[in-house]
Amino acid sequence: MAYPTTKPADAPELTWEIAQLFPAQGHWSEEEYLALDTNHLIELSHGQLEVLPTPNQSHQLLVIALFELLRNFVREGQLGTVLLAPMRVQLWPGKFREPDILFMRTENDDHRSDRFWHGADLVMEVVSPDDPERDKVTKRREYAQAGIPEYWIVDPADASITVLTLQGQEYALHGEFGSGETATSVLLH
């Protein structure tokens, strides 16, 4: 995308002084990132902030439905804690993501804090139509690298759920589930 090099005469002036109070891209520390107080989904990667698009209604309704199903299952078995974005998850030093849905088993409660979690046991991402590769490729690689045992990729475009389970340092396919099928988990059975 090309950006104009001149400002239209009727364009409002941005408050550049405010922007100068923050680090330049590539120079954000964990402390500076964690100090951000915003209602936007913002992830940290290699000193750079990644501002995610605001989810639309259909995305939110799907996330809420999945959250309620998982939360009810987890509550019934007293298996752990389930949360929705925005909740920061540190994958490794300098790398934070905000999965749509995240789960931590009770025995790993010491990995949870009020500000962010150190990893997770299961994460779910609803594929964003503006950048499907982010959820299907980039986050798949990162979540595997972080040692997250199970990753669910929920794709509204083809009404599918791909359940991946960690085998060594990479994810293996547990199952691909379509509309009308019941997705199953290796971690939660």
TrEMBL record:
Coiled coil regions, renumbered to chain: none
Highest taxon listed in the record's lineage: Bacteria
Record's keyword terms, sorted: Endonuclease, Hydrolase, Nuclease
Domain Putative restriction endonuclease: 31-185
Entry keyword Nuclease: yes
GO MF terms held by the record: endonuclease activity
UniProt keyword RNA-binding present: no
SUPFAM superfamilies per record: Restriction endonuclease-like
InterPro entries per UniProt: Nuclease_put_TT1808 (IPR012296), Restrct_endonuc-II-like (IPR011335), Uma2 (IPR008538)
Record-linked Gene3D superfamilies: tt1808, chain A
Protein name: Uma2 family endonuclease
Organism in which the protein naturally occurs: Caldilineaceae bacterium SB0675_bin_29
